[in-house]
């Protein structure tokens, strides 16, 4: 194997599940999230909460840095417009119904996951097209 990997369905799924885990672990409407843990139990396990904050913060940094460097400003804007328009289209066609605040929050979180996942997928494609890995480039966003 020459070290080049094809972005198949499993790779796309992994690049979507990573931001989905991070976004929904930070806050979700079920009440079992980092946000609820911090707000509902403010004096419990302070050190562990700080540690989890650092892990989640690094995950957000990792996802956004990788996607932003690959997509650049214009690409990030276009992906955001496409994902938002896709969400709007799905709602307009009644494929997704927004009946409550919870539904709206979930729809916004899934749209954010789609944007973040697109950035991670394009980072792989960008390195294949340009031959330069994202980690080797300087930040020029």
UniProtKB/TrEMBL annotation:
<dbReference type="Pfam" id="PF20134">
    <property type="entry name" value="DUF6524"/>
</dbReference>
<feature type="transmembrane region" description="Helical">
    <location>
        <begin position="46"/>
        <end position="63"/>
    </location>
</feature>
<feature type="transmembrane region" description="Helical">
    <location>
        <begin position="75"/>
        <end position="91"/>
    </location>
</feature>
<feature type="transmembrane region" description="Helical">
    <location>
        <begin position="12"/>
        <end position="34"/>
    </location>
</feature>
<feature type="transmembrane region" description="Helical">
    <location>
        <begin position="103"/>
        <end position="123"/>
    </location>
</feature>
<keyword id="KW-1133">Transmembrane helix</keyword>
<dbReference type="InterPro" id="IPR045387">
    <property type="entry name" value="DUF6524"/>
</dbReference>
<protein>
    <submittedName>
        <fullName>Uncharacterized protein</fullName>
    </submittedName>
</protein>
<keyword id="KW-0812">Transmembrane</keyword>
<keyword id="KW-0472">Membrane</keyword>
């Amino acid at each position: 194997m020459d070290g080049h990997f094809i972005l198949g369905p499993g790779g796309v799924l992994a690049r979507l599940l990573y931001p989905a885990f991070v976004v929904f672990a930070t806050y979700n409407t079920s009440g079992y999230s980092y946000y609820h843990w911090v707000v509902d139990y403010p004096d419990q396990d302070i050190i562990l909460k700080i540690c989890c904050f650092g892990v989640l913060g690094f995950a957000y940094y990792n996802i956004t840095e990788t996607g932003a460097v690959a997509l650049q400003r214009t690409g990030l804007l276009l992906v955001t417009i496409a994902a938002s328009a896709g969400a709007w289209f799905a709602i307009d066609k009644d494929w997704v119904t927004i009946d409550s605040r919870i539904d709206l929050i979930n729809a916004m979180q899934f749209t954010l996951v789609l944007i973040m996942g697109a950035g991670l997928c394009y980072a792989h494609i960008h390195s294949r097209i340009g031959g330069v890995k994202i980690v080797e480039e300087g930040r020029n966003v």
